[in-house]
Amino acid sequence: MKVGNCMTRNVQVANPEQSIREVAQTMERLDAGVMPVGDHDRLVGMITDRDIAIRGVALGKGPDAKVRDVMSPEVKYCFDDEDVEHVLENMGDLQVRRLRF
């Protein structure tokens, strides 16, 4: 099976300058725990609900802290025409536990 057969379409992208409150509200509305972060049509990171909790709230950052201050800047990605099995092997090799299509 190809990744394109099981990926989410119409993905919403956070901006690094948005507040973590805005992104958390969007995640709540979408029932999502992760969002890609883009800047001028370029993927620059990912933000998860865990990033907000651990890198934000736990470290004393308020709801107006910027996404760029808590996001994960390292992004691993795959393409929609790749085999799911190949992507899963890569995830295991890289010790990646979550994948957002």
What is the fold's blueprint, element by element?
Blueprint: H1 20-30, E1 34-38, E2 43-48, H2 49-56, H3 84-94
Antiparallel strand pairs: 1-2
Tell me what you see in this structure:
The protein is 30% helix and 11% strand. The protein is of the alpha+beta class and 101 residues long. It has a domain at 10-74: CBS domain Like (Alpha-Beta Complex). It has a two-stranded antiparallel sheet with strand order 1-2. A hairpin with a 4-residue loop joins strand 1 (34-38) and strand 2.
Mean pLDDT over the residues? 91
Strand order of the largest sheet: 1-2
Q: From the coordinates shown, what is the CATH architecture of one domain?
A: Alpha-Beta Complex
How many beta-strand elements? 2
| Oligomer classification | single chain
Index terms:
CBS domain Like; single chain; 101 residues; two-stranded antiparallel ribbon; globular; alpha+beta
Brief characterization of the structure:
The protein contains three helices and two strands; from the N terminus they run αββαα.
